[in-house]
Specification:
The strands form two sheets. The chain has an eight-stranded parallel β-sheet with strand order 3-10-9-8-7-6-5-4. The chain has a two-stranded antiparallel sheet with strand order 1-2. It starts with 7 loop residues before the first helix and ends in a 14-residue tail after the last helix. Helix 4 packs parallel to helix 5, helix 4 runs parallel beside helix 14 and helix 13 packs across helix 14. The longest helix is centred in the last third of the chain and has 32 residues. 43% of the residues lie in helices and 11% in strands. It is α/β, with parallel strands linked by helices. It comes from Yoonia algicola. Its cofactor is FMN. Pfam families: FMN_dh.
Length: 368
């Protein structure tokens, strides 16, 4: 019988045992000395939620509106590259979860499953995440392909002008496309359960580029992207446009003015700039800058239902989970993923009860 998952930390602990070191550190690692990740965790821990009493909170809802459609959970799935490293078929597990919960699946440019089968499995609940790279020719080919596949939302990620240095990842010689040398072979031999199942399923690859007619270099500079790039994308994309990786209030106002439909406040899971400010603290400043009605999404460092409630309290309209979902897959496959998802929903619901709320979107005055 698989060990029970009672929290995201349980999933991480089990994943650490089962994954090869290079895979675990690729998923878990952050930029530099990882002080940015630690400061973001400390910022979450220092935020308080005030308990309220004697309010009828017996009937609670976790549904929130997203693009005017109700979701079954107040969090979606962040775009993550090479998810199938956490377990064979991980991308499709996440897609099926998105379909069941009516939440968006972020499909990464460097996903290990192509964009077309993922939006189909997600029953339309999928957003395509876009990296601008090189001269942009390949980037805009992907935009056209996403439109043809039926995507209605593009998420332009803007905080990777250059790929951040992640020492834990570099020490293992992690590369994409995936390469196996003597060091990696020993690592895999010491984790036979993962190695045998992954070998049977086939080496994970950047699936969106297998038949694209050009190669994608993960380390290629993305520094040429500028406001003209954004304008070009806005002009050619008829659907919703989200810009992800924003931590500055002035930039946020400029994005709103440029016709961006929503902003995702994020430090890329603390994987880019070690000295970046904690995104959870910038969220409230950005909310003040863009006004009460502009859509703001949040990711980075969410580990529990209480964290999710805190993000909404700071001004988020929706939140996204990342690596903890990969840990759950590594710990227990699709059952582990569903187990952690249920834990997080339960934690969120219990937190709402403790602070005297029936939903994440109600006014505090509603229960007085």
């Amino acid at each position: 019988m698989a060990p029970k998952i009672h929290s995201s930390e349980d999933a991480r602990r089990l994943a650490r045992k089962r994954l090869p070191w290079m895979v675990f550190d690729y998923i878990d690692g952050a930029a530099g000395a990882e002080t940015g990740a630690a400061r973001n965790r400390a910022a979450f821990d220092n935020l308080e939620l005030r308990p309220r009493i004697l309010r009828d909170v017996s009937d609670r809802s976790l549904s929130v509106p997203l693009w005017d459609k109700p979701t079954k959970a107040p969090f979606g799935i962040s775009p993550m590259g090479m998810c199938n490293l956490s377990g064979p078929g991980a991308d499709m597990m996440l897609a099926r979860l998105a379909a069941r919960e009516n939440v968006p699946l972020g499909v990464s440019t460097v996903a290990s499953t192509a964009m077309e089968p993922l939006i189909e499995a997600a029953e339309g609940n999928a957003w395509f995440q876009l990296y601008f790279s090189g001269d942009g020719v390949g980037t805009f080919k992907l935009v056209e392909r996403a439109e043809a596949a039926g995507y209605d939302t593009i998420v332009l990620t803007v905080d990777v002008a250059e790929v951040g240095r992640r020492p834990r990842e570099l020490r293992h010689g992690f590369t994409m496309p995936f390469k196996i040398g003597p060091k990696q072979f020993i690592d895999f031999a010491l984790h036979p359960r993962w190695s045998l199942t992954s070998l049977y399923a086939g080496k994970p690859q950047m699936a969106n580029f297998l038949m694209a007619g050009y190669d994608f270099d993960r380390t290629e500079s993305r520094a040429k992207a500028d406001w003209d790039t954004l304008r070009r994308l806005r002009d050619m994309w008829p659907g919703k446009l989200v810009v992800k990786g924003v931590l500055d209030a002035e930039d946020s106002v400029a994005l709103k003015t440029a016709g961006v439909d929503a902003i995702q406040v994020s430090s890329h899971g603390s994987r880019q700039l070690d000295s970046a400010p904690p995104p959870i603290l910038e969220l409230a400043k950005i909310r003040d800058a863009v006004g009460p009605d502009y859509p703001l999404f949040y990711d980075t460092g969410l580990r529990s239902g209480e964290d999710i409630v805190k993000a909404y309290a700071q001004g988020a309209n929706f939140t996204f989970l990342g690596r903890i979902l990969q840990f759950a897959i590594a710990a227990g496959g699709e059952d582990g993923l569903q187990e952690l998802w249920s834990v997080l929903k339960n934690e969120t619901s219990i937190t709402l009860a403790q602070i005297g709320k029936r939903s994440l979107i109600e006014d505090d005055a509603a229960n007085r």
